[in-house]
Write a structure and sequence with these properties.
By secondary structure, the protein is mainly alpha-helical. The protein contains 13 helices and two strands, in the order H-H-H-H-E-H-H-H-H-E-H-H-H-H-H. About 75% of the residues lie in helices and about 0% in strands. Helix 5 packs parallel to helix 9, helix 6 packs across helix 8 and helix 12 packs across helix 13.
């Protein structure tokens, strides 16, 4: 009788959520990965179409500003380099889709009222990532390249390999974009109950010390000004993360 009643309930409420098995989760994960890869491929194709604009007008602009002398040392170096840059740019361009697929995979574990905010979560995550990209491009890269161009003996001419230069540029941009996801990480950990604003306030001083150490390593120069320029946004991110954790902390 109980089984009959469950069948009746399911027939009367066809929209009722059915608990997914382990294999169902694996199948869902497989499709989310496929959709993410498709998005990256489309982003890579778009990057290849406009590769000259991305390389000449965006990625090489900091080098021109810092009076860098770039050179290619391999016969087909620029060809392979363009493919690598296109893939990295494809990953950046498809970042919103990757985040969306990630949250769609997590969605079955969320409550129905929480699922309505997935699009806003994707927008906020993308916004944080783009803020990191902009910060890296306009703050971190000029400091790094200025230091690299002026360091060393005046008797030695600094000529930089193009592949090394673009590797530094893209790694700094991607690294800063991921670091700026700290508020989003705070949201996720607070929702599942692993992080609380009380805990973050308790270790605020420790976090500031760690941030200053990280800023000292990331800062290309030895002057305190460049270190502070890098540390201040990180401290603000930590404070924003406390505020986010306070809003979205898991209720006991």
């Amino acid at each position: 009788m109980a089984d009959q009643e469950e069948n009746i309930v399911d027939e009367e409420n066809p929209k009722a959520e059915v608990e997914m098995t382990f294999l169902d989760h694996l199948e869902e994960l497989r499709w989310r990965i496929i959709y993410s890869v498709i998005g990256i491929l489309l982003g890579t194709i778009i990057a290849m179409i406009f590769i000259d604009f991305f390389v000449d007008k965006i990625l090489l602009l900091p080098a021109k500003t810092a009076n860098f002398k770039l050179q290619n040392l391999r016969p087909f170096g620029q060809l392979f380099l363009y493919f690598q840059v296109a893939i990295m740019l494809g990953l950046i361009l498809s970042f919103p889709n990757v985040v969306y697929q990630l949250w769609k995979f997590i969605a079955p574990a969320l409550k129905s009222k929480e699922k309505k905010y997935i699009k806003w979560i994707v927008l906020f995550t993308t916004f944080c990532f783009m803020c990191g990209v902009v910060f890296a491009y306009y703050i971190m890269l000029p400091l790094t390249l200025k230091f690299a161009a002026g360091f060393g003996s005046a008797s030695i001419e600094n000529n930089f390999s193009i592949d090394e230069y673009l590797s530094i540029v893209l790694n700094i941009i991607l690294g800063a974009g991921l670091i700026f996801e700290l508020p989003m990480l705070s949201f996720f950990l607070s929702k599942i109950g692993l992080l609380t604003p009380k805990l973050m306030r308790k270790y605020r001083r420790h976090a500031i010390v760690v941030i200053m150490i990280v800023a000292a390593f990331l800062s290309p120069g030895t002057d305190p000004v460049s270190q502070v320029l890098l540390a201040v946004p990180l401290v603000l991110l930590y404070e924003i993360s406390i505020f986010v954790s306070k809003i979205f902390q898991k209720k006991s």
